[in-house]
Amino acid sequence: MNGRSARKALDVFLVAGESSADDLGARLMRALACERAVSFRGVGGPRMSAAGIASLYPVQDLSAIGLGTVIAKLPTLLRRLRETVEAIVAHPPDVLVLIDAPDFTHRIAARVRRRLPHLPIVKYVSPTVWVWRPGRARAMRPSIDLVLALLPFEPEVHRQLGGPDCVYVGHSLLEHLNDLRPSADEERLRAASPPLVLALPGSRTHEIKRLAAVFGDTLGKVAATHGPLEVVLPTVPHLVPLLTELTARWPMRPRIVVDQAEKYAAFRRARAALAASGTVTLELALAGVPSVAAYRIPALEGLLLRLMVRVHPVIRAHSVILANLVLGEFAIPEFLQGRCTPENLAPALADVLGDTPGRQRQIDAFKRLEAVLGADGIDPSKRAAQAVLDLLERRST
What digits encode the pLDDT tens for the residues 103-131? Predict the structure, then answer.
């Protein structure tokens, strides 16, 4: 019997409440299983279920976006919070891993720490303390032993803010580089006519409703001056009816795709993209697709954000665009709030469609991104798994 099989199976309890967290959790589970005999419990979605977890309750119970939705679901959220804590305390695992969803998972951490003071607790994905509510970093320290960071500047931010120990493991997008990077033939297709333009108006209903008309008018203006465009809009299945309705008014109808392979194929062929602010801007940068980013929220919310947001000095580019934050420069032009108009977006998009200095600046910046992210051939999920095991090793000595 070898050493791996002889050891007692590691009991890991995970909590993930969103689609992106479900993907991170599943990858971490598979990486841990490659290193140790391990059993899994907790809360997760379909990917984590496929990796071997039986969720305590439907993960959809934790999806609440927007103040009105949170208030309506508050009784359910509080009940699920109590159930999760009780499940952990009743049968203490070897380690608790809380993935993203800080408002929910930090409450779990605090309650579990009071009742199981010696249980190792890991937070996978740092909250955005580097731009919003920095006091959360210090507040995490009593209940969280280790933060697994997706962005390279986050460990230093936590150190300066007095947060928990924090280690950079890498962004999960690095595990999709082969899917995102074009082959030589696909690279040539990026120069084909009509050019393929990605339209990415967001992943949430309120984002899409605010940006769909602006994006449609922008693409119409570009087509009027630049010529025909092939527009592809990647999304998820439950948003197809809404997007079909809203894009029916666009000057050119986009091809809406939900299949992951079709999405990656479009990224590899795309000449340019018009995107809502979010993780997708980093995905586009890793794919080498020059982009224009836009975002719009209600005026009052925008005013409050301007008053409350404070970008940590570790970050060189005070941007809301993730790719710009990581690069430390304004590589991708961003048009926010009152500047998010077809009159502003159309010239910027037309510029990156052409063989222009603006397009080349983005491409040159994107070539530095892999080095900035530390893509050394080790998958982020494997780094995350090793960080968890290292924490347990330190605790056992």
Answer: 899 999 999 999 999 999 999 999 988 87
CA 268 to chain centre: 20
On whether both 126 and 228 belong to a single domain, the answer is: no
In the block, tokens 């140790």 appear at 36
- Tell me the sheet residues that pair with 40: 12
Whether 159 contacts 166, CB under 8 Å:
yes
State whether 70 and 188 are in the same domain. no
Domain assignment of residue 45, given as a range: 3-170+376-396
**Domain identity same for 304 and 206:** yes
CA distance 188 to 184: 6
At 30, the amino acid letter reads R
Helices then strands, each counted (H, E), the chain? 18, 12
SS3 content of the chain, % helix, strand, coil (to 5): 55, 15, 30
Q: Are residues 384 and 327 in the same domain?
A: no
| Count of other CB atoms within 10 angstroms of residue 397 | 4
Per-residue model confidence as pLDDT tens digits over 160-185: 999 999 999 999 999 999 999 999 99
